[in-house]
Design goal:
The chain has 197 residues and is an alpha+beta fold. 58% of the residues lie in helices and 15% in strands.
Length: 197
């Protein structure tokens, strides 16, 4: 009788311990060797690197034996991603704008306009804001830097308008209101895509 009570008690103890462990959630430590490090469920700065309807954003990570070098590399990668994102998005805007306006010399306008937006995208990198910056140390004693940066969509639109006022040929085919309308639609589409990731 005594052994039966002890057996029931031990069984209940194991069940309650098992239930409490399954209720706990934590960071998965899938691998711990110095080459792979700890697998992260949520990357630091990843959410801060998602674009929305008002900001272009990008995030990146880099590893180095020197912390400041890891940060510089992460920032450089994030800037490259940001420029690629801006160029891709403004190309979509330009394509739609040209198609909806049904211009005679559409390809000429499109090429010049894309070059202009590329210039503006490169210039806006001077106005980036670091939205998130974090660092960690791996088991191998190397540093890993995480960064997210952003550029305000308004600054990009203002830059495009400013460049267009200096180009008489492009200015003739430029309907600011229509362009901004398409631009805003494409930004909302981009925000929806990035929110789904």
């Amino acid at each position: 009788m005594m052994k039966m009570k002890q057996l029931i008690f031990i069984t209940l103890l194991f069940v309650s311990v098992g239930v409490s462990f399954t209720g706990c959630k934590g960071k998965k430590k899938v691998a711990t060797n110095s080459e792979v490090g700890t697998i992260l469920e949520n990357m630091p700065c990843e959410d801060a690197g998602k674009s929305d309807k008002n900001f272009y954003r990008a995030s990146a990570l880099a590893t180095s034996s020197d912390l400041s070098l890891a940060k510089e590399k992460a920032l450089l990668l994030a800037k490259q991603r940001l420029v690629t994102l801006i160029n891709s998005n403004t190309k979509s805007v330009t394509d739609r704008y040209v198609n909806e306006r049904e211009m005679g010399e559409a390809s000429d306008f499109e090429q010049k306009f894309e070059n202009l937006t590329r210039e503006v995208a490169d210039e806006t990198l001077n106005n980036i804001v670091v939205a998130c910056e974090k660092a960690s140390v791996l088991d191998s004693k190397k540093y890993r830097a995480f960064v997210a940066i952003e550029v305000n969509k308004k600054e990009l639109l203002e830059g495009i308008s400013k460049k267009l006022t200096n180009n008489q040929k492009l200015q003739l085919d430029y309907d600011k209101k229509k362009f901004e309308e398409i631009f805003n639609q494409e930004m909302e589409k981009l925000a929806a895509e990035q929110a789904g990731k």
